[in-house]
Design a protein that fits this description.
alpha+beta; six-stranded mixed beta sheet; binds NADPH dihydro-nicotinamide-adenine-dinucleotide phosphate; binds magnesium ion
Length: 295
């Protein structure tokens, strides 16, 4: 849920006292505050916790609470998480992404997989413990590599059928057990477009809450100039193609919301700013020879 505060949107933030009052008003037990999880702290070192006051939450005291009532009470509106990310600054994107991932992990790990007994959250919410056998469960992240492949003057972008119309991104893939990141990059690029990676350069990483909790590890890669013929794996991708520097630079400059309002589908759309794929593409546009160094 986001609250509109002209000219921007904000993530709802409350002090403990305000939250107790709010839960009372929503007819929920204030004991629920103990379900909250630590997600970071402010520059003034105030701790930030996240609490799921979800609509259809199994442990919700007041399951009958309706979405419109909640929106009125909190003066905000519920929206898709990806759409919410488009409205927020980087700090709030990071907080919301951590909160969503951690709360969802707790919700999905209520029982010990060995004893079948209910697990118990520690105070901060950084782990769950089985009281029957003391097994500790920690939140999990799946490592994913995302690679922008270039042959020098062009870069390779691909799209999956689930992407919004016209959007192309860098190649991504989950790491398999036992693989190094380098091995995953080489395997994914070979599997998805049939190319052999020549040189690999790390750029940056990002926590990504979709579909569960991933650690996106972003890299630039090059292929040999003479070996650029792609074989698109149509089981994984809808399309993949080489794009010139000019095409990608133009797409990066284009104001997506404007073209969408005009109901025009541009030839190439890129991932939104909050996605690390956007950063990879921007780095390459600014410095195609050595993308992860400042231009
Ligand atoms: N932040 C960003 O800029 C971007 C983020 N991404 C993210 O990267 C992720 C990976 O990209 P994608 O191309 O889909 O990956 P892959 O190319 O690895 O293909 C996805 C398939 O991998 C299998 N898989 C293996 N391990 C897992 C796991 N831990 N969780 C889920 N599926 C797994 C599944 O296959 P099976 O169904 O056979 O089990 C799944 O369908 C996506 O979730 C996407 O959200 C992608 C692009 C940009
Ligand atoms: Mg993939």
């Amino acid at each position: 849920m986001l609250q509109k505060s002209e000219p921007q949107y904000l993530v709802p933030k409350y002090s403990l006292l305000e939250l107790e009052r709010l839960l009372g008003k929503l007819g929920q037990n204030t004991q629920r505050i103990e379900d909250s999880v630590l997600i970071g702290c402010s520059e003034q070192h105030d701790a930030w916790f996240a609490l799921d006051i979800g609509l259809n939450h199994s442990s919700s005291i007041n399951a009958s609470l309706q979405k419109p009532e909640m929106e009125t009470e909190l003066r905000g509106s519920f929206m898709d998480l990806r759409k919410a990310f488009l409205q927020l600054n980087a700090k709030d994107v990071s907080l919301l992404s951590t909160a969503q991932a951690l709360l969802r992990w707790h919700d999905a790990h209520q029982f010990c997989s060995r004893s079948g007994q209910p697990t118990k959250k520690n105070v901060a919410g950084s782990k769950r413990i089985c009281p029957a056998n003391n097994i500790i469960y920690y939140p999990q992240m799946a490592p994913v590599v995302i690679t922008l492949v270039s042959d020098g003057p062009r870069c390779l972008l691909a799209r999956q059928s689930s992407f919004p119309k016209g959007v192309y991104s860098a190649l991504a893939g989950f790491c398999d057990i036992g693989e190094s990141l380098e091995e995953t990059v080489r395997r994914e690029v070979a599997e998805e477009v049939g190319l052999e990676v020549e040189r690999l350069q790390y750029s940056a990483s990002q926590h990504w809450p979709f579909p569960n909790s991933s650690l996106m590890i972003a890299c630039h890669a090059t292929v040999k100039p003479g070996q650029t013929k792609i074989h698109v794996n149509l089981q994984e991708l809808e399309a993949a193609a080489w794009f010139s520097h000019e095409e990608v630079a133009t797409a990066l400059r284009r104001n997506d919301s404007y073209t969408l309002q005009q109901n025009i589908t541009p030839p190439l759309r890129l991932p939104p700013k909050f996605a690390i794929a956007h950063q990879l593409i921007k780095e390459w546009v600014e410095n195609p020879a050595c993308p992860s160094l400042p231009a």
